[in-house]
């Protein structure tokens, strides 16, 4: 496995691959890798001849007072896991490499799909995500980039920026990877105390129960949201939002007729958890498959 730290080094390695006719998939991460990340790597290996994984804790997506300094950095352990997973290139740039004129010198903003949901408490988050993803796609020029649906709003945002910036890359999605009790895998789960870890699975249970109740009792979208909120509180979590949106593009909806996704964020102690559950009948007019160019 090649380990590179500069865009020039990355270009040199990828040029050799492309001269051999190999196609490339990119998996962007912030490191501290877990089984969810490795599921993305596995999908990338299915798609492409060569797999690049980036490890970069992006300062542009952290607001003041968030956990940028505390965010777990485990590069050597990540390197070992990626080597075992058959990754071809680890790209671990420093901040100055990704932001040569400083963080915020150039930004990428995506409208509509970034409104509400996580933007309610993290207003600059998706601009930071869109900016760093654009930089990674320009640097690696992959044929595919693979993202997880656990960060659903982020996945939709990336799809929109690729479409509108006319980037020649296919965005592939991987379903949420969960623990046995349903908790979505996240690098921030390590912040949970043992007591809060036992409670955290209540987030996924609340989503499942709310969707099931909505379908059985013919509720509208607001009814499902209220049901999820009540379930979260009953499980001891502090809800931040529960919202039903249209699947694939996050348009607001009032009913459950068609492809829907219930998204939620909640807090346990100092840990913020997010999750989502897709439901409803498919609609072939939507770009709702796992991939899009």
UniProtKB/TrEMBL annotation:
Localization per Swiss-Prot or TrEMBL: Cytoplasm
Residue positions binding (R)-pantoate: 61, 154
Residues that coordinate or bind beta-alanine: 61
UniProt entry tagged with the keyword ATP-binding: yes
SUPFAM superfamilies tied to this protein: Nucleotidylyl transferase (SSF52374)
Reaction(s) catalysed (UniProt annotation): (R)-pantoate + beta-alanine + ATP = (R)-pantothenate + AMP + diphosphate + H(+)
Pathway in which this enzyme or protein is active: Cofactor biosynthesis; (R)-pantothenate biosynthesis; (R)-pantothenate from (R)-pantoate and beta-alanine: step 1/1
Catalytic machinery residues: 37
EC number: 6.3.2.1
Gene3D superfamilies reported for this sequence: HUPs, Pantoate-beta-alanine ligase, C-terminal domain
Enzyme class: ligase
GO molecular function: pantoate-beta-alanine ligase activity
Residues at which ATP binds: 30-37, 148-151, 177, 185-188
Record keywords: ATP-binding, Cytoplasm, Ligase, Nucleotide-binding, Pantothenate biosynthesis
InterPro entries, per database record: Cyt_trans-like (IPR004821), Pantoate_ligase (IPR003721), Pantoate_ligase_C (IPR042176), Rossmann-like_a/b/a_fold (IPR014729)
Note: The reaction proceeds by a bi uni uni bi ping pong mechanism.
Function, as annotated: Catalyzes the condensation of pantoate with beta-alanine in an ATP-dependent reaction via a pantoyl-adenylate intermediate.
HAMAP family: PanC
Subunit composition and interactions: Homodimer.
Record-stated family: Belongs to the pantothenate synthetase family.
Name assigned to this protein: Pantothenate synthetase
């Amino acid at each position: 496995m090649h380990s590179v730290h500069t865009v020039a080094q990355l270009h040199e390695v990828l040029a050799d691959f492309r001269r051999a006719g190999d196609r490339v998939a990119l998996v962007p991460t912030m490191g501290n890798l877990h089984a969810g990340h490795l599921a993305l790597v596995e999908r990338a290996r299915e798609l492409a001849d060569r797999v690049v994984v980036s490890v970069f804790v992006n300062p542009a997506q952290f607001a003041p007072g968030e956990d940028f300094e505390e965010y777990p950095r485990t590069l050597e352990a990540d390197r070992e896991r990626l080597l075992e997973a058959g990754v071809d290139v680890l790209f671990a740039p420093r901040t100055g490499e990704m932001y040569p004129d400083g963080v915020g010198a150039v930004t990428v903003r995506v409208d509509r799909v970034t409104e509400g949901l996580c933007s309610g408490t993290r207003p600059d988050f998706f601009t930071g995500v869109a900016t760093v993803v654009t930089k990674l796609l320009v640097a690696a020029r992959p044929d595919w980039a693979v993202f997880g649906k656990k960060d659903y709003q982020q996945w939709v945002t990336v799809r929109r920026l690729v479409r509108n910036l006319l980037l020649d890359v296919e965005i592939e999605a991987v379903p949420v990877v969960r623990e046995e009790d349903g908790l979505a895998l996240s690098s921030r789960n390590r912040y949970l105390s043992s007591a809060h870890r036992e409670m955290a699975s209540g987030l996924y249970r609340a989503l499942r129960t709310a969707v099931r109740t909505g379908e059985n009792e013919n509720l509208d979208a607001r009814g499902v949201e209220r049901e999820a909120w009540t379930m979260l509180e009953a499980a001891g979590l502090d809800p931040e939002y529960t919202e039903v949106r249209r699947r694939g593009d996050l348009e607001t909806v009032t009913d459950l007729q068609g492809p829907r996704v219930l998204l939620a964020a909640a807090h346990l102690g100092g840990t913020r958890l997010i999750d989502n559950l897709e439901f409803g009948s498919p609609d072939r007019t939507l770009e709702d498959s796992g991939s899009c160019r």
